[in-house]
TrEMBL record:
<feature type="domain" description="Polyphosphate kinase C-terminal">
    <location>
        <begin position="533"/>
        <end position="698"/>
    </location>
</feature>
<dbReference type="Pfam" id="PF13090">
    <property type="entry name" value="PP_kinase_C"/>
</dbReference>
<dbReference type="InterPro" id="IPR025200">
    <property type="entry name" value="PPK_C_dom2"/>
</dbReference>
<keyword id="KW-0597">Phosphoprotein</keyword>
<feature type="binding site">
    <location>
        <position position="435"/>
    </location>
    <ligand>
        <name>Mg(2+)</name>
    </ligand>
</feature>
<feature type="binding site">
    <location>
        <position position="498"/>
    </location>
    <ligand>
        <name>ATP</name>
    </ligand>
</feature>
<protein>
    <recommendedName>
        <fullName>Polyphosphate kinase</fullName>
        <ecNumber>2.7.4.1</ecNumber>
    </recommendedName>
</protein>
<dbReference type="InterPro" id="IPR036830">
    <property type="entry name" value="PP_kinase_middle_dom_sf"/>
</dbReference>
<keyword id="KW-0479">Metal-binding</keyword>
<dbReference type="InterPro" id="IPR025198">
    <property type="entry name" value="PPK_N_dom"/>
</dbReference>
<dbReference type="Pfam" id="PF02503">
    <property type="entry name" value="PP_kinase"/>
</dbReference>
<keyword id="KW-0460">Magnesium</keyword>
<dbReference type="InterPro" id="IPR003414">
    <property type="entry name" value="PP_kinase"/>
</dbReference>
<feature type="binding site">
    <location>
        <position position="405"/>
    </location>
    <ligand>
        <name>Mg(2+)</name>
    </ligand>
</feature>
<feature type="active site" description="Phosphohistidine intermediate">
    <location>
        <position position="465"/>
    </location>
</feature>
<feature type="domain" description="Polyphosphate kinase C-terminal">
    <location>
        <begin position="360"/>
        <end position="525"/>
    </location>
</feature>
<dbReference type="InterPro" id="IPR041108">
    <property type="entry name" value="PP_kinase_C_1"/>
</dbReference>
Length: 723
């Protein structure tokens, strides 16, 4: 029947949905402590990022970048995850936890781990990266290390470029304690009135629009560069800001606020207006972290703690400089201090058969499915070119696309606008609830609407996270569907640093599936099942559980079996329990995870057949892959879904099944390489500890998977003929 999954279509066999007969053959009493805490697992992921910053074998400006990534990651963790836990505790809401402990205990553990990590992070900069930068001719210096000539030069720069935009705010009976914006860098200044002897307090915000690090030398040389932190420069010019006052103390501090967004969509008539109102409210969320320099005096600290209403647990005493996310601003033209530059290649199948011929995406995809692997293969000459060609092609009648996150100067959006301008039917499903991209997506939505694009915002109560594009083209008297299903966003900028997969296909069934799914997202159609897609929230978890159950049954029957999963996060309890039971039955389970993993591998009698690996490097591993042995007829899906409650229950996600034998081999080789003990990676043990394996028994470096893929994919040749 049309729309129903059959064994031939999906690889799923008839199997009792509740799996009771299977569970009875195994030990159903899995231990209560079978899950690792998701928040602590996330902090362990950020520790792996920090370990890259500490790695002396990496180029020093890349290590600096990893320090900044760590800081940015941790900011978001506090703004969303910690803030969410605290809000639920304060409001008496149930706190989801898969480790069976009280939420307050979880918060205490998070605080202890975060304090340790932030101190390690600060020391990594002070003791490891900063000296390595100096040795390479890039020195971050302090004011007290400068000579008189340097100070005169910087005072002139301060007077001309910084002083005019500073706004000191006094705190006294006539001036209440000012609002401190989230993630802003601030100076707490205590002064004494020389006439009255009275002490006063002032807050001075470090302007975020100015360079975070200021060049000390005004020459153009890049061989020896010195920088000073902006707040250090400002702190040593306070006499200009408080003339006639005695400067007693000055210290740097930074506040992190709750910036999560919650909207009751069922009670909202206009989603955009409600979201804009909520974004305004987010700026004034309660503080959940106070970072201060370790030399801050007790009087100043007491004032900040009292006025900001934070607990002792929420105060982080750190060596200066605070906010190492500012290291992103050290953009120096020193190729020798960065990774060797890699230019993505055009996917071999998308190259024209003759060297000087024009690229024809439709002809290439019509000939054969194309599996793309970014950033090794160019996004610009594949997905972007596909949509731009569709926009310009007079035979294209319609384009439908989801947009979750895109870049500020998005050629994808421009292609959709161009298509609408030329009279094509264009549908853009813009997810305006994409966290921290809400305002940008609202702007895109309005721009698209003005251009005549049909803009919709998905289903009430769900985020549309799937990465889908559908082009309908008139060819030889019939309509043909060209589809793209990806694991990453339609964002040309992140496509250069995020590892992702994407399928370009002219398969009619995928086209029909996407047509039905877009109808569901833009209208009121309800599709229960698809043929080559697995779609959340209705059926994705159930389908994956069924696949896992089939492998489990095969192992119990003495047949070959195997499960391989690559995700960003592995948290969902139902999926984890199914993998435990598969392991109990003898299925070899390989889990390749970038970030959070609540699954506990290697536990005797429960998960001894499960291996968990993590790979971090110059590119952010972002693709999601699900591979099931299926008695040798391997079933492989790629798509947007992680194994988390939000992905499986509160988002529209889509996985597409790969069918080209060469693509199945390519996926298999990816897993073989990732799980190979000769590949540099982190291994998770049953206690929740991640151990880096990056050197062999002789002390040599293990293989860098991303570097190998770069060389291998770059060497692919133009196809000699068409199928």
């Amino acid at each position: 029947m049309d729309g129903e999954i059959t064994q031939a279509d999906s690889g799923l066999t008839d199997f009792d949905d509740d799996f009771d007969p299977l569970i009875e053959k195994l030990d159903p009493a899995l231990p209560d402590d079978r899950y690792l805490d998701r928040e602590l697992s996330w902090l362990a992921f950020n520790q792996r990022v920090l370990e890259l910053a500490e790695d002396e074998s990496l180029p020093v400006l890349e290590r600096t970048n990893f320090l900044a990534i760590f800081a940015s990651n941790l900011d978001e963790f506090f703004m969303v995850r910690v803030a969410g836990l605290k809000r639920r505790i304060l409001t008496g809401l149930a706190v989801p936890t898969n480790v069976g402990r009280a939420a307050q205990d979880v918060l205490s553990d998070i605080s202890a781990a975060a304090h340790a990590l932030q101190n390690r992070h600060a020391l990594a900069f002070q003791k490891l990266v900063r000296p390595a930068l100096a040795n390479a001719g890039v020195d971050v210096v302090a004011w007290n290390s400068l000579d008189d000539a340097d100070r005169r030069s910087l005072r002139t720069y301060f007077s001309n470029q910084i002083f005019p935009v500073l706004m000191p705010l006094a705190v006294d009976p006539a001036h209440p304690f000012p609002y401190i914006s989230g993630l802003s860098l601030n100076l707490a200044v205590r002064v004494r009135n020389s006439k009255t002897g009275k002490q006063e307090f002032a807050r001075l915000k470090v302007p975020p629009m100015l360079p975070r690090f200021v060049r000390v030398d005004r020459t153009e040389s890049v061989d020896c560069i010195r920088y000073i932190a902006l707040e250090d420069l400002i702190a040593n010019q306070l006499g200009d800001l408080f003339p006639g006052m005695e400067i007693l103390e000055h210290h740097v501090f930074r506040v992190t606020r709750n910036e999560d967004v919650e909207i009751d969509e069922d009670e909202t008539e206009n989603l955009i207006k409600a979201l804009e109102k909520e974004l305004l409210r987010r700026r004034f969320g309660p503080p959940i972290r106070l970072e201060v320099t370790e030399d801050m005096d007790d009087v100043t600290l007491g004032l900040l703690v009292r006025e900001l209403d934070v607990t002792e647990q929420e105060v982080y005493h750190l060596p200066a400089p605070l906010d190492l996310g500012g290291l992103f601003d050290l953009r120096i033209d020193r190729p020798d201090l960065h990774f060797v530059k890699h230019v993505p290649t055009t996917a071999a199948q998308l190259l024209p058969s003759e060297p000087n011929a024009e690229q024809d995406i439709f002809a290439a995809v019509a000939n054969r499915d194309v599996l793309l692997h970014h950033p090794y293969e160019s996004f610009a000459t594949s997905v972007q070119a596909f949509l731009e060609q569709a926009a310009a092609d007079p035979n294209v009648l319609a384009i439908k696309q989801t947009l979750y996150r895109t870049s500020g100067d998005s050629p994808i959006v421009e292609a959709l606008i161009a298509a609408a301008d030329s009279g094509k039917q264009v549908l853009a499903l813009v997810e305006i609830k994409a966290r921290f991209d809400e305002q940008a997506n609202i702007t895109w939505a309005r721009k698209l609407e003005k251009a005549g694009v049909h803009v919709v915002y998905g289903l009430v109560g769900l985020k549309t996270h799937c990465k889908l594009a559908l082009v309908v083209r008139y060819e030889k008297g019939v309509l043909r569907h060209y589809s793209h299903v990806g694991t990453g966003n339609y964002n040309p900028k992140t496509s250069r640093i995020y590892e992702d997969l994407g399928l370009l296909t002219a398969d009619a069934q995928v086209g029909k599936d996407l047509t039905r799914l877009f109808n569901e997202l833009s209208g009121y159609a309800i599709e229960k099942k698809f043929k080559r897609l697995l779609v959340a929230p209705l059926h994705l978890r159930k389908a994956l559980l069924k696949h896992i159950a089939i492998e489990t049954q095969n192992a119990l029957d003495g047949k070959t079996s195997g499960i391989r999963i690559k995700v960003n996060s592995m948290v969902d309890e139902a999926i984890i329990d199914a993998l435990y039971r598969a392991s109990q039955a003898g299925v070899q389970v390989d889990v390749w995870v970038r970030g959070i993993c609540s699954l506990r591998p290697g536990v005797a009698g429960m998960s001894e057949n499960i291996r968990v690996r993590s790979i971090l490097g110059r590119y952010l591993e972002h693709s999601r892959i699900f591979s099931f042995h299926s008695l040798g007829g391997t079933q492989v899906y790629i798509g947007s879904a992680d194994m988390m409650h939000r992905n499986l229950d509160r988002r529209v996600e889509a996985l597409v099944r790969l069918v080209d034998p060469e693509h199945l081999v390519e996926i298999d080789e990816l897993f073989e390489r990732a799980m190979d003990p000769r590949t540099s990676s982190w291994w998770l043990d049953e206690t929740g500890q991640w151990t880096r394996h990056d050197v062999d028994e002789k002390g040599g470096h293990l293989s860098d998977m991303q570097n190998k893929l770069m060389r291998q994919i770059s060497a692919r040749k133009r196809p000699t003929g068409r199928r």
